[in-house]
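Chain entry —
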Amino acid sequence: MATQLGLLGQKIGMTQVFADDGERVPVTVILTGPNVVVGKRTPDNDGYSALVLGFGEKPARLTNRAAAGQAKAANTKPVRVIREFRLPADEVAKFEVGQQLTAKDIFAGDNVPVDVEGESKGKGFQGVIKKHHMKGMTRTHGTHEYFRHGGSIGCRLTPQRVHKGKRMAGQMGNETVTVQNLQVLRILEEENCILVRGAVPGSKNGIVIVTKAATRSAYKRKGVGKEEIRSKNPLKASKKAAAGRG
């Protein structure tokens, strides 16, 4: 299990900003706080160590006794969303119950890579062409009512069943999706927002979990920083020069 610290947030939407070198960057705006430490899990009491964070305020009329008691123990207001982040015991000990965490406390630095988890948009019951990008049948003479069908799904004698995982029509979307290795382009401290390069799963106002990247320590874009290999063919070289790429 990955032990990475992160924050709970709300996806506001997408926009575009200009980097220092003039590049126009599409970004997703995520409201990340502040997050409140509402509890801690310790190996002695719970058998594992984790940090419990809360995000968003919840009206008192919608709060049950258990949530109200937890908020009272943490000396905070009732929160709307609660998640646990598995961390080593020494890391959990650095935080206090009732402490507020912001994006600057977790994602400060340059080229910080993050993983964003959210619930993808639900698209209902869809066919195999939209869900699995199948080709479909040819629209020629002699083909009737099979243009968007899935085709055969199994055998007769052997194995006399449909294999598990067979790509068929069904529910599309509405599942937990994690996009890895995204860049925190900017941190807006006054608005408690972060700008993440690219798109993240979920619809507007959806709850997302932003954590430090599990597989990288620094963000690096693919295909950037490599010198293009020039072709030795003079014909290809002239075409590139004519296109302004020489």
User: Anything to note?
Assistant: The first strand starts at residue 6 and ends at 18. Residues 6-122+174-242 form one domain. The mean pLDDT is 88.
